[in-house]
Amino acid sequence: MAAFLELGYQESEIVKQKTSGGTNLVVGPPDADYLVTAHYDTPGRNGFLLFATPWVGQVWGNVAAIAVMIPLFFMFTFVTGFAAAKALQAVNYHANADQLASVMTVILMIALFAVCILMFAVKNKHNHNDNTSGVLGVFSVAAQAAGNPELRKNCAFILFDNEEWMLLGSSAFARWRKKNHPGKQNSQVFNLDGIAGGDVLLLAVRKKFDGLHDFNDAMKAEGFDVAVKRSQMVYMSDHAVFKRGVMISLLKRSKAGPLYIPRIHTSKDTFCDLDNLGRLGGAVYRHIAKNIGGNAV
């Protein structure tokens, strides 16, 4: 909140929206036609579940990892469960080996699955890309908009909580907005998520909509190598809860061609290209200002 006050926004323009287990920060009119958003909650240390490789990218990297990990998982639990059953049977000769093996295998499966889930709760101390960069991107656009009266009337800046927990923060805001401003369901949402550095500007959408083509052209005119992807599961972020939301991210291109997000949710997420981040923030600002007829200086 203090950062927005330093940019020149008034306390009357800032609302802390309480949600289930979190708080969204809304700066500017919540019924604005343009929303610039990012999530500020910290991801867990579960990068091993988001396998990405510079060879084949994110999607195929995950496919390969799953193809290897699932058989190994079952093999490990079966072998270990059988060995544990044999050890218990050695203590109790009357125990049924097959039943013991089945029980121990199930227990091991549950334990390993619980460990994977608990890794989501272990906060990652390094999150330059996901999503400190997105928050800085929102500040960048807000700083430029601070001196533009028309844009301040038509644009809101929102930092969502609990994106990492199934988009709880943005979902709560979307429900509140639909109830209190039902005529604003077609507002354009620019969601900045993972813009610390990359070769390709990804525009990910749940479904294509009017205005996406113009934004695509605008980013290309700014010199970005743009890729548009229609996916909600692969590129999951707060944009998915809005009818006209687009996730904006800077990704790497693998040697085979597909895109990937390097070092996400890991201790190695320590890089942030501030110059490129500022360039992207300026491009988003100029596009919005042009659309509302404001002075994009």
Write a brief structural summary.
The protein has 297 residues and is α/β, with parallel strands linked by helices. The protein is built from eight helices and nine strands.
Structure description:
By secondary structure, this protein is α/β, with parallel strands linked by helices. Helices cover about 45% and strands about 15% of the residues. Strands 1, 2, 3, 4, 5, 6, 7, 8 and 9 form a nine-stranded mixed beta sheet that branches. Helix 2 (about 55-90) runs antiparallel to helix 3 and helix 4 (about 130-145) crosses helix 8 (about 275-290). The longest helix is centred in the N-terminal third of the chain and has 35 residues, at about 55-90. The chain is elongated and about 80 Å long. The mean pLDDT is about 85.
Main features:
297 residues, alpha/beta, Aminopeptidase, 9-stranded mixed sheet, 9 strands, elongated
Order of helices and strands: HEEEHHHHEHEEHEEEH
Which topology of the largest domain does CATH recognise? Aminopeptidase
Report the sheet-strand fraction. Answer: 15-25%
Summarize the biggest pleated sheet: 9 strands, mixed
Supply Rg: 23 Å
Uncertain residue segments:
none
Provide the residue-averaged pLDDT: 84
Report the CATH C-level class of the largest domain.
Alpha Beta
> Percent of residues in helical segments?
40-55%
List the total number of helices: 8
Class based on secondary structure composition and strand pairing = alpha/beta
Instruction: Please give the number of β-strands.
Output: 9
Gross morphology is: elongated
Count of folded domains: 2
Q: For the terminal residues, how far apart are their CA atoms? A: 25 Å
Query: If classified by CATH, what would the architecture of the largest domain be?
Result: 3-Layer(aba) Sandwich
